[in-house]
Amino acid sequence: MSTAPRPDEDFTDRVRREWAETHPEVDTSPIEVMGRITRIGSQALQQLDRALDASGVSRAEFDVLCVLARSDRPLRASEVTAVTMLSGASTTKHVDRLARLGLVERLPFERDGRVVLLHLTEPGRQLVDTEFPQRVERDRQFLAGLDEDECAVLAGLLRRIAANVESGIRR
């Protein structure tokens, strides 16, 4: 980290330059994309956390509410877990809190008494209906300066990267 930051560099440029100084034998070009994806995601999630503070729910709890809001039927906890990528224990913890807040209710599953279905209550739906459009608007602001075609190209490229990540490519 011997050289000063350049005015035209972003955080990822600086990190890549620093790695080039300490490990010149490593091709750090993937950081150009993956480093930026990671940093953008982290910063966007931090902003979402701050925006959700006033609602009294965490980002993970909001994710649970959104999964239920998008569904046309009550869901099993395992279905929510699969979509949110939370652990089963985390899903249970978040649902417990959301139920105490009156945002989610547990319903018996008629075919199997051991299974509980999760359903969004009216206050839960109102919270999602208030917060979700605000989240989409923040996302729109993050994309400021990109036209519709650029957004489409970027989305397509990111879709391909997501498919690689989701397929579990390992080396």
TrEMBL record:
Residues 1-26 have a biased composition (Basic and acidic residues). Pfam families: MarR_2. GO terms for molecular function: DNA-binding transcription factor activity. Residues 30-163 form the HTH marR-type domain. GO terms for biological process: response to stress. InterPro entries: HTH_MarR-typ, MarR/SlyA-like, WH-like_DNA-bd_sf, WH_DNA-bd_sf. Residues 1-27 are annotated as: Disordered. SUPFAM superfamilies: Winged helix' DNA-binding domain. SMART domains: HTH_MARR. This is Putative MarR family transcriptional regulator. It comes from Rhodococcus wratislaviensis NBRC 100605.
